[in-house]
Amino acid sequence: AALFVRERTGEGQKIETSLLATSLALQGAGFLRSDVNLGFTVDPEASSRERRPLAAYYRVYRTKDTMVAVACLTPVLRRKMADAVGIEDPRHTREIPRQDPEMLVVAKAFTEAVSERMLEKTTAEWLAVFDAARVPAGPVRKVADMADDEQVLANNLATVVDHPLAKALTMVGPIMRMSGTP
């Protein structure tokens, strides 16, 4: 659209987008909100069911009240996370080849222990622990609740449309903003 306008007017424009806007757009009907029953529901936890034990440091964990996501992609961050949750991971003190059957046993044991430990505190409590330890983590939000998220609101990523049947329909707004042709 911006290229079309440039072709017609000879003037370019600034285009802005964000990963948040794009991810909201990909949620489809899970983001819709209406005063009228739209006849469907979305399971907000369906995509959060992580079963791979080798991904203990990059996954979603249940907490006492909701869920928290961790993303520790380096050995340093993995050690910080293990220390923060207070679970020893033998992979930090000795090298276990990935193909060794012991690797899966150790990984499963660590993941299960962390999963149990995470249930002992609320998401807010774990986020405070992770923040103090400088572990990358964040709360998991349900798609249906994102229309009220402070970042979504601050960036005007939701829009309300009058609909003849659904009345006021809150939905994802444009995923990009163009300075010359909003």
Q: If you had to describe this structure to a student in words, what would you say it looks like?
A:
The chain is of the alpha+beta class. It contains six helices and eight strands. The protein has a three-stranded antiparallel beta sheet with strand order 2-7-6. A hairpin with a 3-residue loop joins strand 6 and strand 7.
Question: How is this structure best summarized?
Answer:
The protein is of the alpha+beta class and 182 residues long. The protein has helices at 2-9, 19-26, 75-85, 101-118, 123-133, 150-154, and strands spanning 15-17, 33-34, 58-62, 67-71, 137-139, 158-163, 167-172, 176-178.
Strand and helix layout:
Elements: H1 2-9, E1 15-17, H2 19-26, E2 33-34, E3 58-62, E4 67-71, H3 75-85, H4 101-118, H5 123-133, E5 137-139, H6 150-154, E6 158-163, E7 167-172, E8 176-178
Antiparallel strand pairs: 1-8, 2-7, 3-4, 4-5, 6-7
Structural class: alpha+beta
Order of helices and strands: HEHEEEHHHEHEEE
Tell me how many strands there are: 8
Uncertain segments are 44-51
Strand content: 15-25%
Report the sheet with the most strands, covering strand number, pairing sense and barrel closure: 3 strands, antiparallel
The percent of residues in helical segments reads 25-40%
Strand order of the largest sheet: 2-7-6
Shape: elongated
Overall radius of gyration? 22 Å
- Our measurement of the CA-to-CA distance between the termini, rounded to an integer number of angstroms, reads 10 Å
Q: Note the total helix count.
A: 6
Q: Please, what is the average pLDDT?
A: 84
